[in-house]
Design goal:
By secondary structure, the chain is α+β, with helices and mostly antiparallel strands. It folds into three domains: 3-102, Rossmann fold, CATH 3.40.50.20; 131-200, ATP-grasp fold, A domain (Dna Ligase, domain 1, 2-Layer Sandwich); 206-480, D-amino Acid Aminotransferase, Chain A, domain 1, CATH 3.30.470. Helix content is 35%, strand content 22%. It has 19 helices and 20 strands. It has an eight-stranded antiparallel β-sheet with strand order 13-12-9-10-11-14-19-18. Strands 3-2-1-4-5 form a five-stranded parallel β-sheet. A hairpin with a 5-residue loop joins strand 9 (206-214) and strand 10 (220-232).
Length: 494
């Protein structure tokens, strides 16, 4: 494989280009109007224009991308994550064009892309499932009866999607019908499919995912876990590896279950098996993401691996660089996703120009990003600016290092989640390891709690909080946090 096109943008495109250059593989970037001067365009050996700024008119243009592949003699396509990375139809087109899709087969993507078919596939491999039903339901009365049998509280979930869309928590039978209709409506709008299923709601849940890798020779390994319980809107904000709560025995059980999931779908390449861990440390299969994850750097940091390089080697038909007994955990790594969002106003996406953009020192932190000082954060794509990653010998040292890294990450011109990242690092619940996916609900309902934790104005400013003009009294801060501010991002998005 001598030339690879990266069918993506931003920080993941840059991340893939770095590994490909190291492997002496020529790179082709694609770009939209909004990304004409983006770093990934300049760093690739070649770059081609694929359309207007909206992703539907550029990064999702499958035939345009394939046309360039044929013209430029591309032998492989790396899809990154998001966009076309889990599109089985695209993977099939790539294969039919005689190009290697650096990822799993279309069949594995289809099987694991639907939560219900995934559950049915892993059943035969004794992988634990959350109590509930593993078949699609559309009839409200029948669903209500099933929910009563499972026992409230329950979750109604869209079969065809993720990211919290089409998901509703139902506390009692009285609110079931309304919540199911809302879940179906959102599922239909987001995924074109209103099929839902029902699961028992797990109290104090932790989101633990296992990084897996499989080659074409039948070898499958797990590269340990990532703790992804700190979330907002059911989407991850902070990840760490390893988890503070897993014992070696539980880690092995979950890893072996994740390997079984791979075998259930004849998997190839990088994947992530997501589990729910309850208060009694019972774990349950949630879903499989058939791609590289945003948070893959923390796994690389604790295992000393390059997962993008692994993906390419597997795609070329090579054996996995390491088998299970050659893998071990060294140290602790934490990742904070730096989003252009206003934490004081419910994590509403923010837009603007990076008037000042200075990364922390390289010896302090790894920064996977796609911006330079003076650039604008486009309104058309995910508002993530960067991933801030630290490694240390122990979890406590990693937390301290992350706080220093956040303090040394200078961003002005728009609001970011750096302040929230620092709040989490300093919170007793996170430091003790005693937290779950309800962290934001329990500890961040009133975002002005940050002011209590950041004792003085200088510390708050270092955390990236842009203050309101006037007296910075407790009352002023509370008023500022409770104002119903209309997001410019939202205005542009409609």
């Amino acid at each position: 494989m001598k030339k690879v096109l990266i069918a993506n943008r931003g920080e993941i495109a840059r991340r893939v280009i770095r590994s490909l250059k190291k492997m002496n593989i020529a790179t082709v970037a694609i770009y939209s109007d909004a990304d004409a001067n983006a770093p990934h365009v300049h760093e690739a050996d070649e770059a081609v224009y694929v359309g207007k700024s909206p992703s539907s008119e550029s990064y999702l243009q499958q035939d345009v991308i394939l046309k360039y592949c044929k013209e430029l003699g591309v032998e492989g396509i790396h899809p990154g994550y998001g966009f076309l990375s889990e599109n089985a139809g695209f993977a099939r087109k790539v294969k039919e064009a005689g190009i290697k899709f650096i990822g799993p087969s279309p069949e594995a993507m289809e099987l694991m892309g639907d939560k219900l078919s995934a559950k049915q596939a892993v059943k035969n491999y004794n992988v634990p499932l959350v109590p509930g039903v593993d078949e699609a339901i559309t009839d409200v009365e029948a669903a209500k009866k099933i929910a009563a049998e499972v026992g409230f509280p329950i979750l109604i979930k869209a079969s065809a999607g993720g990211g919290g869309k089409g998901m509703r928590l139902v506390e009692n039978v009285g609110e079931f019908e309304e919540q199911m209709k809302m879940a179906q409506s959102e599922a239909r709008s987001s995924f074109g499919d209103d099929a839902v299923f029902i699961e028992k709601f797990v109290t104090k849940p932790r989101h633990i995912e296992i990084q897996v890798f499989a080659d074409q020779l039948g070898n499958v390994v797990y590269l340990f876990e990532r703790e992804c319980s700190i979330q907002r809107r059911h989407q991850k904000v902070i990840e760490e590896a390893p988890s503070a709560i897993l014992s070696p025995e539980l880690r092995k059980k979950m890893g072996e279950a994740a390997v079984a999931v791979c075998k259930a779908c004849n998997y190839e390449g990088a994947g992530t098996v997501e589990f729910l861990l309850d208060a009694e440390l019972n774990f349950y299969f949630l879903e499989m993401n058939t791609r590289l994850q945003v948070e893959h750097p923390v796994t690389e940091e604790i295992t000393g691996t390059d997962l993008v390089e692994w993906q390419v080697r597997v795609a070329r038909g090579e054996r996995l660089p390491k088998l299970q007994d050659e893998l071990s955990i060294h140290g602790h790594s934490i990742e904070v996703r730096v989003y252009a969002e206003d934490t004081l106003n419910g994590f509403i996406p923010d837009i603007g120009t990076l008037n000042r953009y200075r990364r922390p020192r390289k010896d302090l932190a790894r920064v996977d990003d796609a911006f330079e000082e003076g650039m604008e954060v486009p309104i058309y794509y995910d508002p993530m600016i960067a991933k801030l990653v630290v490694w240390a010998e122990t979890r406590e040292e990693a937390i301290d290092k992350m706080i220093v890294a956040i303090n040394n990450y200078q961003i002005s011109g728009l609001k970011t989640t750096l302040d929230f990242g620092k709040f989490v690092m300093m919170h007793p619940a996170f430091q003790s390891g005693d937290f779950d996916t309800n962290f934001v609900k329990h500890y961040f309902q009133d975002p002005t709690v940050m002011w209590d934790m950041f004792k003085d104005e200088k510390q708050a400013l270092e955390a990236g909080i842009e203050k309101i003009w006037g007296d910075l009294t407790e009352k002023a801060n509370k008023n500022a946090a409770s104002r119903n501010i209309t997001s410019t991002w939202k205005l542009h998005a409609h």
